[in-house]
Known about the structure:
Layout: H1 3-36, H2 44-48, H3 51-63, E1 70-79, E2 89-94, E3 99-106, H4 111-128, H5 141-165, E4 173-181, E5 187-193, E6 197-202, E7 205-208, E8 241-246, E9 252-256, H6 258-261, H7 266-275, H8 279-292, E10 299-308, H9 318-325
Antiparallel strand pairs: 1-10, 2-3, 3-4, 4-5, 5-8, 6-7, 6-9, 9-10
Amino acid sequence: MSPTVVVLIVLFALGTALAIFVFTRKRSTAADTRHDEPPKSLQPQAVLSVIPHEQLEQEAEEIAPTDYELRIFGVGRTDVGLRRKLNEDAFVCLPEHELYALADGMGAHAAGEVASKLTLEAISDAFEHNRYLSAESSEQPSHRKMRLVRILERANQIVWTMSNEVQAYRGMGTTVVMAHFSVHKRYVFIANVGDSRCYRIRDGQLTQLTTDHTLGSVGVLGKTSSLLSRAVGIEPNVEVDIMTYRTKPDDILLLCSDGLSRMVADDQICATVMDHPDLNVAADALIAKAKDAGGKDNITAVLIRMEKLPPSNHEGDSGLRDRTTLPV
């Protein structure tokens, strides 16, 4: 074999080896890049660019609201129903904090009554004593939502602890649904655990704003479909649904236990409220409807209306203005 041929063979072999090394190196580098640096579409910066826009819009509207003011008016009614000996439902209205809540307890030997009472006491205590409140960010929607979650987490700890320490209360728990309005009432924050509901009636149409946390809602059929998949106090930790909705003048919110929602159809609930402009009368009528349908469970309804105030320059009206702008 001539020297020239040998040289060519050696050069070819070296070139092939070098090409393989470069190709392998590039694949290794690409794999490392994919592992350490996810695509831009998955990086947090891409998501965060959307979230502040909505949050800033809400905060700006709270600081400089539109050219009208809203007043919140709420009432509540509860009834033992026709089949139960005890009323394990409870509700609380704290208009000074624009807070309305309802709980439907469960458990033997009056334990459900204890669970619902403890939960509403925890909620009331948090608002009346300004717990979980940051003065620097109290008006921010994100803070208000997180505050509701923390309050219900605290309520869950209280009920869970009592359930494990007192034999008679073992296994008790409760649903909860609550509505809290922003400073200028442009938004309402809804938190819920369980199957107590929040409805909104707007322009004569009824819409369920919350999702039931039942086995049926996750696809389970049959007799167990109505069993709760989530409740306050049945586990060490609780998952809370939290939602934000823009309000409009003349909106009506209805918080209710399943003693109403299971006994009265949605269209009848809407018609009953629309037929009775006086919320006290409407609440009584809803209770009566549920009892007429059998009253198989405790029945509770809390109705809240957003009323548009007439134009005002606020001169000499500091009482109203102060109440609507103070952080809660």
